[in-house]
Design a protein that fits this description.
Blueprint: E1 2-3, E2 6-7, H1 12-15, H2 18-37, H3 40-50, H4 56-63, H5 67-91
Antiparallel strand pairs: 1-2
Helix pairs in contact: 2-5, 3-5, 4-5
């Protein structure tokens, strides 16, 4: 899109209201705190899956653990996140 000769780039920040942006930032902070509070293996499995995009099989091979163990760690991680963010979304 061009406006007065300047090219503008639409980003997530430009399409959100200030309030929405602040709420999004709060969710990011809360999510990071929840991830930081997880046990080491659970946190590592979560980060490899969600931040590095690795499959359960790849994570199992990388950490030398079974795919069932990876699945168990991810289940705990997601339960922690769901529980930790539930109260936040109820207040919005």
């Amino acid at each position: 899109m061009e406006r007065m000769g300047f090219k503008t780039k639409t980003t997530v920040a430009t399409i959100l209201t200030t309030q929405e942006w602040l709420e999004f930032q709060e969710v990011k902070v809360r999510l990071q705190r929840l991830v930081d509070s997880m046990h080491e293996k659970c946190r590592l499995v979560y980060k490899l899956s969600r931040e590095e995009g690795m499959s359960q099989k790849q994570i199992a091979e990388e950490l030398n653990i079974s795919e069932n163990t990876v699945e168990s760690h991810m289940g705990r991680a997601l339960k922690t996140i769901k529980g930790g963010l539930k109260s936040f979304f109820l207040t919005l």
